[in-house]
Amino acid sequence: MYKHLLDNLNTAVLLFDADLKLCYLNTAAEIILADSARQLVGISAEQLFKLSDAAFVSNLKHCRAAGESLIDYALELNRIGNHSVFVNVSITSDSEKFAGDMIVELVPIDNRLRILQEEQLHAQQNTARLMVRSLAHEIKNPLGGLRGAAQLLDLELPNAELKEYTQVIIEESDRLQDLVNRMLGSNELPNKQRLNIHEVLERVRWLVQTETGENIKIQCDYDPSIPEFLGDKNQLIQAVLNIVRNAVQAISERGNVMLKTRIARNVTLERQHYKLALRCEIIDDGEGISPDMLNKIFYPMITGRAEGTGLGLSIAQTLIAQHSGAIECSSEKGRTIFTIILPLLSA
Question: Where in the chain is the domain with CATH 3.30.450.20?
């Protein structure tokens, strides 16, 4: 029973015996240490942490000998190749309660920083969206009056040449009305039904491939084991479509876009822990996004293209957030990755 509970914790837990040999680690610890319990159980603390801070093993020995607990901060764990992670460490040693065993908890610092940064970024983006929506509402009413006045004037003008000017006003008013509607976005809540993410991706792939022709290839790398989940198919198609179109626009003439799906484990989204999540990556080999734009691309009305409106990615993020998910982006020249993470099962 306790093993089942520990395996579902988001905190990494390791159990060492009196000889400082590892006798148990949970799933979160396997992820941090980048190795399986089958490979790690039975090895000594010296072997496990030989590439890390030497003082940590000394602290373990001291805690075992004195029966004391200890908390250490910003320990760098080095496991395989260049795999490195900074963690806060808590060591609990009580010979009476744990029969000589020691419990070690590892909490990745970068995960906490990422969560705090995401929350701050989301708060800023939500503030920007509220300002844009308020501005759109203020524009909408006088815009309708302007169009109506142009229509009345068009009816009164006897000269056909003069009517051309009123038609320009009407057409531009309609164009601005469409832009305002997109700025306001949809207020509809998701109509969630059971669906497979690959239905969404294949629909988007077909739509974009039809638009782009043969110069840009839309490829796929799907994990067929991903289960169905509850989602609004139309909203998810719109979100993914906005991102894929953005990827296509980043490719000058010829290039590739890859749609890739995988299972993610032990994911935290908006402070909620999920044992299983869906990870969908949209990868393109275009010019990339400049570093100064990378933290702004999800803000409304922010775009790197002269002809862009800066609404596509903002709308996509809003739709994914309505599914309790998140969008991340990393970019360098020749490789930009938009990652959509959607929860599958709650822990």
Answer: 2-108
User: At 16, is the secondary structure helix, strand, or coil?
Assistant: strand
Per the DSSP assignment, residues forming a β-bridge with 89 are 72, 106
From the list 110, 33, 111, the residue with the least C-alpha distance to 268 is 111
How far apart CA 302 and CA 305 sit, in angstroms, is 9
pLDDT in tens, 107-133: 777 655 555 555 666 666 566 666 666
Q: What would the pLDDT profile of 128-165 be if each residue is shown by its tens digit?
A: 666 666 666 667 777 778 888 888 888 888 887 888 88
Within a 10 A sphere around the Cβ of 133, how many other Cβ atoms?
16
Contacts of 12 (CB under 8 A, 6+ apart): 25, 26, 28, 29, 31, 32, 33, 87, 105, 106, 107, 108
CATH topology of domain 193-346: Heat Shock Protein 90 (3.30.565)
Q: What is the Cα–Cα distance from 215 to 209, expressed in whole angstroms?
A: 10
Question: What CATH code is assigned to 113-184?
Answer: 1.10.287
pTM here is: 0.56
Please give the torsion angle defined by the CA atoms of residues 287, 288, 292 and 294, in that order, rounded to the nearest 10 degrees: 150
d(CA 245, CA 265): 29
Pairing of strands 255-269, 229-231: unpaired
Q: In the block, which residue shows the tokens 């991340």?
A: 328
Using only the alpha carbons of the chain, give its radius of gyration.
Answer: 27
Q: Are 306 and 217 in contact (CB under 8 A)?
A: no
Question: Under 8 Å CB-to-CB from 14, ≥6 apart: which residues?
Answer: 22, 24, 25, 29, 103, 104, 105, 106
Q: How far apart are CA 296 and CA 288, in angstroms?
A: 14
Three-class DSSP category at 228: coil
Q: CATH 3.30.565.10 spans which residues of the chain?
A: 193-346
Report yes or no: 21 and 42 within 8 Å, Cβ to Cβ.
Answer: yes
3-state secondary structure of 93: strand
**Looking at the domain that runs over 2-108, which CATH code has it been given?**
3.30.450.20
